[in-house]
Every structure is written in C-alpha cells, then in structure tokens.
Amino acid sequence: MGVGAEEIRAIADALWAAERTGEPIPQPSATRPELSLEDAYRVQAVNIERRLARDERVVGRKVGLTSLAMQRQLGVDQPDFGVITDAMLIADGGGLELAGLIAPRLEPEFAFRIDAELPPSPSAEEVRAAIGAVCVSIEVIDSRIADWRIGLVDTVADNASSARIVLGAWREATPGLLEQLLDTRISLARNGEEVASGPGSAVLGDPVAAVHWLAGTVGAFGQAFSRGSVVLAGAVTGAVPVIAGETWSASAPGFEPVTIFAR
C-alpha cells in the first residue's frame, strides 16, 4: 500500500498552499485511504525542503501526540514528529500573529537542548548525557486540514501540525533535574488564570523518553541530532484554542515562565 510520487507532491502542494492562504484542505487520508505513514513523512519532507529553499534553517524537532490527552483529542495511538525551523520561533514575551493561522491551539511542553553530537540510534543513557539544558515552552499548533479532522498520517504530512514555538529561559540539565521532570507540573494560563496543567510524566511516562524515542525514529530516516538542536518533548495537557487579545504563559516550579501575547 502507499501512494506514488505524483500524489506525494500533490498533497504537499495542497498543504503548502493552505498554510499560505489560510484556506484549509480536506483530510488527505479521507480521499487517499492508501496513504501510509511512510508516505506522510515523505510529504512532510517535501515541504521542509521548500522551507530550506527559502533560507529557513532547521533548529530542531518536535515530538507530537505523546500524552494520552492529545492522543484521545485527535484519535491516534502513537507519537509522531515534525521539524522546527527558525522561522517558527517567537521570542519569549513576544507577539503571536494570528493572521495566516487557521485554527491555532496552544500546548505547554518541556523543551530540551542537545549539547553533544548523537549517533543515529543512541541509547537512553547517551541521550540523557547529551541533554545540556531544559526550559518550559509553548508550542502553537495549527492544522492546515479543515476542522482538525485528522488521523496520524494527516498530521504527519502536515509537519505534525507545527506552527510556532516559544522557548523560555534555559536551565542546566543536571541528572537530578531530569529525574524531577516526571513530577514537575507545567501550568498553562490565559490572562493570568490557569486553564490546564500536567506533569512531565504525561509525556510517554518521562519527557526524556520522548527525546530518546525521537532520536531513534529520526535515526531510522538516516538523520541524527546535531549539537545545539532543540527538541520539544510533547504536550503535558490537551491543546487549548487561542484568540486575539489574550496573554498566555506557561510556568513550572524551578523554571522561568514563558509568555506570549496573541494579536
């Protein structure tokens, strides 16, 4: 099963156009039930190459669908990953421009900075040792597919529904800190009032395990983390819609909070 090169290009073209026009497309897998997970990552790769051709730079990757809450919300049963470029980054305290986004939602997450080169299929111990810093982050997800009617292959093709990333202040990743992340809760607040929260253990039982899963998964594609790469480990809660005029923050004990203003 699977689709051919022309269909891969057609899906990529449609998603690329949707992101630029703000007009979502029908669910790809609904009209192409033979679309496989491998096909979906090929679609994703086509549009990442387009980003690179526009002089965007890959700064990291995200793990998606790691929490039970998000898997239930989108009706899937396994994680996925997407690519983060510098054009997706928003400065802490900066503005989230909603123009051009279709149906944005926010997710509070732990982000990790990889400070050492890793082989394509590293051990859990190698991944843990390579993590140099951790911060609290907010990921803005958006679907270029109408009404968030997506399955796993749809969101993978759509670069794991990535849109924007806001990173907080980095904290050195000591062994003790990495162990504490399981029980550390991230709180997501709108205009100063908490709307969702969850512990690090909501992310595959351990957010560091999500980083290890990603390292092995991209390794299967012949890729590897480079020094300085950023990894978003996945949401600790379900995603929350955002509208203009709202100030959002994510905070966790022992970390500097991260904030954005939607406009």
At a glance:
The chain is of the alpha+beta class. It contains 8 helices and 14 strands. Helix 1 packs across helix 3 (37-53).
Keywords:
single chain; 263 residues; alpha+beta; 5-stranded mixed sheet; 30% helix; globular
Protein model, in words:
This protein has 263 residues and is an alpha+beta fold. 30% of the residues lie in helices and 29% in strands.
Itemize the secondary structure elements and their pairings:
Elements: H1 5-21, H2 28-31, H3 37-53, E1 58-64, H4 68-74, E2 80-85, E3 89-90, E4 95-96, E5 105-114, H5 124-130, E6 131-141, H6 152-157, E7 162-167, E8 171-172, H7 175-180, E9 185-190, E10 193-199, H8 207-220, E11 230-235, E12 240-241, E13 247-251, E14 258-262
Parallel strand pairs: 1-11, 3-7, 4-14
Antiparallel strand pairs: 1-2, 5-6, 5-11, 5-12, 6-7, 6-8, 9-10, 9-13, 13-14
Overall 3D shape: globular
Work out the strand percent: 25-35%
pLDDT under 50 segments (min length 5)? none
Share of helix, binned: 25-40%
Mean pLDDT: 93
Structural class: alpha+beta
Q: What oligomeric state best describes the polypeptide chains here?
A: single chain
Q: Count of helices? A: 8
Q: Rg from C-alpha positions?
A: 17 Å
Order of helices and strands: HHHEHEEEEHEHEEHEEHEEEE
In total, how many beta strands? 14
Biggest pleated sheet: 9 strands, mixed
In whole angstroms, the N-to-C terminal distance is 44 Å
